Amino acid sequence: MDVKPLAPDLSVAGQIRPADLAALAQAGFRSVICNRPDGEGADQPGFPEIDAAARAVGIEARYLPVVSGQASDGDAAAFGALLADLPGPVLAYCRTGTRSTTLWSLSEAARGRPLPDILSVAEAAGYDMTGAVARVAAGGRPPGDAADLFHSVVVVGGGAGGIAVAASLKARRPDLDIALIDPADMHYYQPGWTMVGGGIFSPAETARTMASLIPAGVRWIKAAVAAFEPERKAVVLEGCRVVRYDRLVVAPGLSLDWSGIDGLPETLGRNGVTSNYRYDLAPYTWDLVQNLRAGRAVFTQPPMPIKCAGAPQKAMYLSADHWLRRGRLKDIDIAFYNAGAVLFGVKDYVAPLMEYVRRYDAQLHFQHRLTRIDGPGRRAWFTRTTGDGGTETVETDFDIIHVVPPQRAPDFVRASPLADAGGWVEVDPASLRHARHPGIYALGDVTNAPNAKTAAAARKQAPVVAHNLLLDMGYLRGDEVAYDGYGSCPLTVERGKILLAEFGYGGKLLPSFPAWLIDGTKPSHMAWLLKERMLPPIYWKAMLKGREWMATPRPGPQGAGKRAA
Question: What are the FAD/NAD(P)-binding domain coordinates in residue numbering (predicted)?
Answer without folding.
Answer: 152-267
